UniProtKB/TrEMBL annotation:
Alphabetized InterPro entries for the sequence: EamA_dom, EmrE-like
Organism for this UniProt entry: Fervidobacterium gondwanense DSM 13020
Top-rank taxon, per record: Bacteria
Membrane-crossing residue ranges in chain numbering: 40-57, 69-87, 94-115, 121-143, 212-231, 247-264, 270-290, 299-316
Gene3D superfamilies: 1.10.3730.20
Pfam families: EamA
GO annotation, cellular component aspect: membrane
SUPFAM superfamilies linked: Multidrug resistance efflux transporter EmrE
Domain EamA intervals: 40-163, 182-316
The keyword Amino-acid biosynthesis belongs to this UniProt entry's keyword annotation: no
Keyword entries, A-Z: Membrane, Transmembrane, Transmembrane helix
Protein name per UniProt: Transporter family protein
Length: 317
């Protein structure tokens, strides 16, 4: 933090004289750190938004043509590996807690990976954010949080926005198109389970390190998914081929997945949840841009869905 130079005394300060110039100097000094602080917070949020935006593109590349559990294992195991600077945060307590919520998250993120492999990324990204709707409902039921009229309007706005993802001649056909898509249905189920996982997190992880918990949960998720794959009789050669053929997307996807969360934790030092979570949903626009450029998807009116979901999230949070 730099030293603030004193303001020069001029005829402008006729009333109050020296005291006025001193007061203005103090205000000027206070503004600079506050501006810098907001700037750093916005930097962390920008990093989170970009990483989240590209995560779905990498996930799409990883999932296409690969068995679901093999792709999901690769996605989350490489996320775990990318957090190696924080391995020392893991404790026995964190691993035990991760075993509980990891059961839910492993199913949720397996569905998420399946969805990325069976539907456009520009459809999956907005549906991912529906977990906010499930979260406020479950929080009201299990945590006693208030479900206000504002939150209800926000939830309805987000649900309405979904109708633009696979637009039909009318709203009923639009929703029918959504439920005819296996990838879209998988993502809706994944979002609901993510909300359940968040509720469990709030109950059991109050006193543990957030970054340590994220390392632990990625490890447990990848182990659970590996177990699911072995039960489904996925062959070792399928895992080998995934790493050999898609190593670049595994690394990029792992970094984006893991460090988008690290960036969120950093942003919480500058913004509250009511600001950080809606801002995170701007990543949908980044995903749509990347999907159009890299995956050649037709975005069209899906942008309207992203806008409605974003404003709905502001009301919810």
């Amino acid at each position: 933090m730099g030293v603030c130079p004193p303001l020069s005394k001029t005829k402008t300060y006729l009333k109050g004289g020296k005291r006025l110039s001193h007061y203005k100097t103090k205000v000027a000094c206070l503004r600079e750190p506050r501006t810098m602080k907001s700037g750093i917070g916005l930097l962390w949020m920008t990093i989170r938004i970009v990483l989240l935006g590209y995560e779905r593109i990498a996930g799409n590349r990883i999932s296409r043509g690969s068995p679901t559990f093999v792709a999901a294992w690769g996605f989350f195991f490489f996320s775990f590996l990318s957090l190696f600077p924080f391995f020392n945060y893991i404790t026995k307590e964190i691993l035990l807690l991760s075993l509980i919520s990891g059961t839910i998250y492993s199913v949720s993120f397996s569905l998420y990976t399946y969805a990325l492999g069976h539907e456009d990324a520009s459809v999956i990204a907005p549906l991912y954010n529906l977990n906010a709707v499930f979260l406020v409902v479950l929080s009201a039921i299990f945590l006693g949080e208030q479900f206000s009229l504002k939150r209800l309007i926000g939830a309805l706005l987000m649900i309405y926005g979904v109708s633009y993802l696979k637009k039909g001649d009318n709203i009923a056909i639009s929703y029918k198109n959504i439920f005819k898509s296996k990838g879209a249905v998988a993502m809706i189920l994944a979002s609901s389970l993510m909300a359940v996982g968040r509720i469990i997190d709030r109950k059991i992880t109050i006193d543990v390190s957030p970054i340590g918990y994220s390392v632990g949960i990625y490890l447990i998720i990848s182990l659970y998914i590996l177990l699911y794959g072995l039960v489904r009789k996925n062959k070792p050669v399928e895992y080998f081929n995934l790493v050999r053929e898609k190593w670049l997307y595994l690394i990029l996807g792992g970094i984006c997945n893991a460090y988008s969360y690290v960036a969120l934790l950093k942003a919480f030092n500058y913004f509250g949840v009511s600001v950080a979570e809606p801002l995170s949903m701007l990543s949908v626009f980044v995903t749509m841009f990347f999907a159009k450029v890299f995956l050649k998807e037709k975005i069209g009116v899906r942008v309207i869905a992203a806008v409605l979901l974003f404003f709905g999230s502001i009301l919810i949070y």
